[in-house]
Specification:
Blueprint lengths: L1 H15 L9 E2 L16 E3 L2 E2 L4 H9 L4 E5 L6 E6 L7 E8 L6 E6 L25 H7 L4 E8 L4 E8 L4 E8 L2 E9 L2
Parallel strand pairs: 1-2
Antiparallel strand pairs: 2-3, 4-5, 5-6, 6-7, 7-11, 8-9, 9-10, 10-11
């Protein structure tokens, strides 16, 4: 019973923080989105791809960009990987896209640090340790403190630990992945 009530409280808390729909869609690769006061990832795109788009629309958008490639996950039909293929060294994994069941809309767009060269200004630091540093500009002027966090994987013997930090007012999740090589930060556009 306590878990159920906690879930209701959390859902109400998250929805209370939502903003009204902005008048324009923000392209994250063209705008320093960390400087926008009313940013909401539900109304943003990455290379023209936004949340709630179906697979067919996303495939059409990506096919029109000769420097990008979308590949379906061999084991998970609701997941596609996004690659930059403009480099001489081969494909560079920029992130992956995850759809709701039955292709009812893009649910998550997970961006890896490799996308940083495409981000503008202060926004580029969102995929660095600065995203968790209360003294950094990205933390002070854009993210602030996370509303909640979850440890979704913790294997101390390896070491391997993944923690998600939730920013529902921005429709963002920051995911930190700690392993023996260090910590990597991913940015997740998510429709809460």
């Amino acid at each position: 019973m306590a878990v159920f009530l906690c879930s209701i409280f959390s859902a109400e808390n998250l929805s209370a923080q939502r903003k009204t729909k902005p008048t324009t869609i923000i392209e994250l690769t063209e705008t320093d989105f960390a400087k926008l006061k009313d940013f909401d990832a539900r109304y943003a795109t990455v290379f023209g791809v936004g949340l709630d788009m179906n697979v067919g629309k996303v495939q059409t958008i990506i096919k029109a960009k000769p420097y990008l490639k979308l590949e379906k996950d061999a084991f998970n039909r609701s997941r596609y990987y996004l690659y930059d293929i403009s480099h001489d060294t081969g494909k560079v994994l920029l992130g992956y896209l995850k759809w709701h069941p039955k292709d009812s809309g893009l649910q998550e767009f997970i961006l890896y640090p490799e996308i940083t060269p495409y981000l503008k200004g202060l926004s580029g630091s969102i995929l660095t340790k600065e995203c968790q540093d209360p003294q950094s500009d990205i933390y002070k002027n854009f993210l602030g403190a996370a509303v909640d966090k979850d440890i979704i994987l913790d294997i101390p013997s390896i070491p391997l630990k993944t923690t998600r930090y939730y920013y529902p007012a921005l429709s963002l999740i920051i995911e930190s992945q700690l392993n023996e090589k260090g910590t990597k930060y991913n940015l997740i556009l998510f429709d809460f």
